[in-house]
Amino acid sequence: MPIDAAKALAAEPRSGEIRWERRDVQLYHLGIGAGRPATDPDELRYTLETRLHVLPSFATVAGAGSPGVIGGLSMPGIDVDLAKVLHGGQSLTLYRPIPAAGTATATSRIAAVYDKGKAAVLVMRTDVADADGPLWTNDAQIFVRGEGGWGGDRGPSTRLDPPAGEPDRTVERPVREDQALLYRLSGDYNPLHADPEFAKLAGFDRPILHGLCTYGMTLKAVVDTLLGGDVSRVRSYTTRFAGVVYPGETLRIRMWRGDGRVRVAVSAAEREDAPVLADTIVEHL
After folding, report:
1. Is residue 193 flagged as an active site residue?
2. Is 40 an annotated catalytic residue?
């Protein structure tokens, strides 16, 4: 069987050192649309090294920059066709603000393997800590079509009931035509996001935006709109990737305030609000 759940779960964690500099943080922020308008004091928090605050979603690219999906497919007990793999969701837990530059140890393992019948779901967990203690935990949910059906644990349902009532805030964020080209410089060089011919082979009319770029753009919108631009207030951030975004489109981001949390739904405005991110929650102080 391509996925040996017992072997994957029993495998020794992999640890390695990661490093990042202010330049890496600035490049990531530009890749998710920061810096518009360029002289706006609120934007300079993301772009000017003397004022730099780190948006927590930078954790998804810190160090190597390659998403957890890629690391998960190279773990023991996992031997699957990349064409059957989808990035199903992402969860991030913060233990304290991420420094603008740092060195840390990242430890990765397969935390769960779920049998969804016609598919399998792998949870690739990465814990990151520096000399002062834990910094963050990243969970990448990896959906593998055609690899279920062995009678394993189905796992928890990630689907949530829709938020009640009208959103408290709705904002729109344009995606630049070159957004994916800029974002990929933070480490995810999958040609699906840059090469038109490769995108066609994958079944798309043209290259699509990285899901984690949409993830970052959305968190920035929530922080800037409802959290006073204070990145240190974010405690956790989780989403399910529900659809694709094409460079040049507009993200419509709806937000519902709750007690210590914000529910979020993201859609592509030009495609009749086609869902992009669903079951999205930002927990905060």
Report:
1. yes
2. no
